[in-house]
Model the fold of this input.
Amino acid sequence: MADKKIVCLGGGIGTANLLRGIKEYFSDISVIVSMADDGGSAGRLRRYYKTFPTGDIINCLVALSDAEEILIQLLKFRFKGQRYGPDNLLPGQKLGNLMLLALSFIKKDFNQGLIELQKIFKTKGKIYPSTLSPISIWAKTSTGHIVTREENIDLGRFKGQIKKLFIRPKNPLVDKKVTDAIKNADVVIAGPGDLYTTVLPVIMVPDILSAIRKARAEKFFIVNVANKPFETPKYTIEDFAKAIEKHCQDILFDTFFLNKNQNPEIPQRWKNEYKYVPLVNGDAKFPFKLVQEDLVSEEFPLYHDSSKLAKVIVGNI
Done:
C-alpha cells in the first residue's frame, strides 16, 4: 500500500486535513494546489509582489512536514493584525507565506523556492502549483450578475447562486511534472474543499483535466462535510456531481465519499449558516460508487477527521 502513488487536487484546509491522515499510509504523495487564491494575507502578497498565492501551499506544507514542532509553529505563525489589511503592511501576515516569498526571490524562481522550503521542512511528498502562473476566476450567477475574484466568491459578495465558473486565462500553462504526476498516479483525489474557489479552479485547467481523463488511476471525490452558505447552499451529492460534469464535461470521478455521521452539533457560531450535506437513501442509484461512512471531526464538525478519512480511503483502494 505504501508504494501507491497518490495525487491530491485542491489545496485548502480540506486538502490539508486529508494530507495529515494519508501521509501515515503512503510515501509517494503529490499535491497540486490551486493558483486562483487572491484573498486574505496571501492575496495581499500576491498583489503587492506580483507573485503566486502562497497560503494554500503553506497549509499543505504544514500538513506534510516532518520537521520539529517549533519549526512547524514558525510556518504557522501569524503576525498580529488584520488579514485583510493594506497590501504593503506586515500585520496579519503569516510567516510561512513570507518565507516562501523570500526563497522565491533568493532562488529567482517561485518553484525553486518552493522546492527549497520543502527540503527545509522535510515534507513527506511533493507540492506543485497547479499552473505556471497565477490565474483568476470569475462566475455568472443565477440572477445574471458577474462576480469577479476568488475572494468575492469565497466571501459571498454576490447575488443569487453560482451557475458557471470561469478561469482566466482559459488555458494556462502547466508544468509537465504536474501532468506526469496525474497520469502516473494510482489514486487521484479531489477535495474536500470549497467547490468553486478551490477544487474546480484546479480540475478545470485544460491540461490538468486532460491528464485526469487519461489517468488509469482510481479517481476519488471527497464531498464536504457541510455546505458552505454562499458557494454550495443546500447542495446534495447529485449537485456536486452535476457541477463537476457541467464544468468538466464529465463527472470524472469513480467514487464519491460522503460523511454519514451527522450527530455532532455544528458550533453555535456557524449552525445557522452551515448545514450537513444531506445523506443519501440506500436505494439511490448514481453513475459512480458512493461510500457513506463516519468521516466527521467530532471536535470541529465542519471538517473531516483526518484519521477517519484516511482509513476509509485506504479501505477503498
